[in-house]
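Hi Y.,

Following your request, here is the sequence exactly as I used it, all 233 residues.
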Amino acid sequence: MTGTVKAAVVVALAMGISAALGGCGKKEEPAPPATNPPTAAPATSPAPAKAVVDSSRADRTASAPPRAAADTSAGPSTTTSASGRTSGAECCDILADSALGRLGRLVIAFPEGGTASSSPVAVFKSGEKVKLQTGYGAQAWDLIPGPYAVSLSGKRIEGVTIQSGHDTQLRVGTLRIKTGSSTAVALMDADDKTKLHSGYGPQEIGLPVGTYRVQIAGQSEAVTIRKGKITDY
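Below is the corresponding structure, written out as C-alpha cells. Let me know if you'd prefer a different format.
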C-alpha cells in the first residue's frame, strides 16, 4: 500500500471515529406531549335585570280600597226629600201630590202681602206658540205630564216639566213699582232691549225669578226678583 493511500485511510477513519463520538454525546430531546386545544366556554345569556319595586308604593296600592265606577247611564236625576219635595229644573219646585192621579199640576202662587192679579199668564207646549191655557194672576192648572213653557208678564220660561202625581210650582216673586200716576214705566228683560211689560203709575208685576231692568224716562236700572219675595222699586 502506498503512502498516499494510507494517509487517506487514516483520515477517513479519523473522521468516522469523530462522527461516532459526536453522535454518542448528543442527547435526543423528547417530543412534547400532545395537548388538546382549549375548549371555548359555552355562551350564556346575561341574567335578566331585576325590576326595582317601590315597596312603599306597593303597600299603598294594596291597602287602598277599590274605587266604585260612576254610573252615568241614568242621566240627570232628581232627589226627593223626606218632605216629598223633589228638586228639578231651576225654574220650579216639584212636590208629590197624593190627590192627583195620572195628571200633574202647574201652580203659580205670588208672595203674601201683595197682589199680582193683573199679571198675564199663558201655558204652551214646549217649543210651540199655540197657547194651551191663559189667565191672570195666581193659577193652578191640571195638565197631562210632559214638557211645557210658561209665560208670565211677558217673560217666557222653557223647561217646565209636569209630572204625574206632582205639583210643579213655578218660582216667582213680585215687583212693586211706586211712581206717580202719570209716570210711564217699562219693564225690560236683562238685555235691556226686550220689552216685557209697560204701563203708567204704581204697579205690581208677577215675574219668574231672575234679573230685569226697570226703564223710566229713557233710563233703566237692574232689579232682582227672588222666590216668594216682593221687590220694591
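The mean pLDDT is 76.

Thanks again,
Q.
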